[in-house]
Amino acid sequence: MKLAIMQPYFLPYIGYWQLINAVDTFVIFDDVNFIKKGYINRNSILVGGKPQQFTLELIGASQNKLINEIEVGNNSKKLLKTIEMSYKKSPYFDAIFPIIEDILNYEEKNLAKFIAGSLEKISSYLEIDTKFIYSSDIKKDNTLKAQDKILDICKKLDASSYINAIGGQELYDNKKFEEQNIQLNFLDAEMVKYKQFKNDFIPYLSILDAIMFNNKDEIKNMLKNYNLI
Length: 229
Hints:
The chain has 229 residues and is of the alpha/beta class. It has one domain. It has 8 helices and 10 strands. The strands form 3 sheets. The protein has a 6-stranded mixed sheet with strand order 7-2-1-8-9-10. It has a two-stranded antiparallel ribbon with strand order 3-4. A two-stranded antiparallel ribbon has the order 5-6. Helix 2 (76-87) packs antiparallel against helix 3, helix 3 (93-104) packs antiparallel against helix 4 (111-125) and helix 3 (93-104) runs antiparallel to helix 7 (207-213). The radius of gyration is 18 Å and the shape is globular.
């Protein structure tokens, strides 16, 4: 079984979805500390031909709290208006905007579950059948840290392969995984280009941008544009 473990990111860029699509089970790492100014509750979209950050409002956000101890705020209507104004002339707006409305109008207030809902809805649209589970639901040794905690989760779930984003290379020791008969790989996402409006292409925006400008089959092909190392 191929496994990935990542903090929940809100409407992340396509590389995150490549990782979801590459594994059988995706663990939403919800019982680790929240990181301020990261991508847990923010990303970027195209506004007037330029990248602009959007932020999901949070209540009680603190780096001293776990991700699943934080609540979502009340700026969904504002975000929807910004998205509508920015993408209403995009080719797939009519198909995608109702999905985004469903995501942002989700009544769940727990941050981890709110983001999990968005991951599941977009995965469903893209016909990704990866299983999502919360790390907080796994009976594991919570005194462990970093790589040891990841290995414990892999063993608890009988993973034969663990795939991480390319940025995590320095965090893991391949020998430790070999000792547990777990194959360790890193996903190196290739830059995916597509036509936006009349602007020069702006990379690394939210998946929202990609699905506004490309049909489902085109996105599925983009999900394969990576190398495993």
